[in-house]
Amino acid sequence: MFMTELRWPDGVGKCPHCGSTRVVWLDKARVWKCYEKHSRSRFSLKTGTIFEDSPLGLDKLPQSGSW
């Protein structure tokens, strides 16, 4: 949950598409789900960041930048 705290320091998850706080973590799918009405209701922690298109997982990304 370290990366979650970095993404949302206030502790409230927000949808990167609409900004809604009506989101829940779907543990089985390992994604977030927004309950507002739009076509992209599921998103990951990387959605809307510079890491969005990276094939690496978030557990690998911080290590790849440190030399």
Question: What does this 3D model show about the protein?
Answer:
By secondary structure, the protein is of the alpha+beta class. The chain has one domain. It contains 2 helices and 3 strands; from the N terminus they run H-E-E-E-H. The chain has helices spanning 2-7, 61-64, and strands at 23-26, 31-34, 42-43. It has a 3-stranded antiparallel sheet with strand order 1-2-3, with no helix packed on it. A hairpin with a 4-residue loop joins strand 1 (23-26) and strand 2. The longest helix is centred in the first third of the chain and has 6 residues, at 2-7. It is globular and about 30 Å long.
Question: Would you kindly provide a brief summary of this structure?
Answer:
The chain has helices at residues 2-7, 61-64; strands at residues 23-26, 31-34, 42-43. With 67 residues, the protein is α+β, with helices and mostly antiparallel strands. β1 and β2 (31-34) form a beta hairpin.
Features:
three-stranded antiparallel β-sheet; alpha+beta; 67 residues; globular; 3 strands
Got a strand count? 3
Residue share in β-strands: 5-15%
Classification by helices and strands: alpha+beta
Radius of gyration: 13 Å
Question: How many domains in all?
Answer: 1
Biggest sheet layout: 3 strands, antiparallel
Distance between the termini: 24 Å
Mean pLDDT reading: 81
List the total number of helices: 2
Shape: globular
- Percent of residues in helices comes to 10-25%
Taken in chain order, the helices and strands follow as HEEEH
Spatial strand arrangement across the major sheet: 1-2-3
Outline the low-pLDDT stretches. none
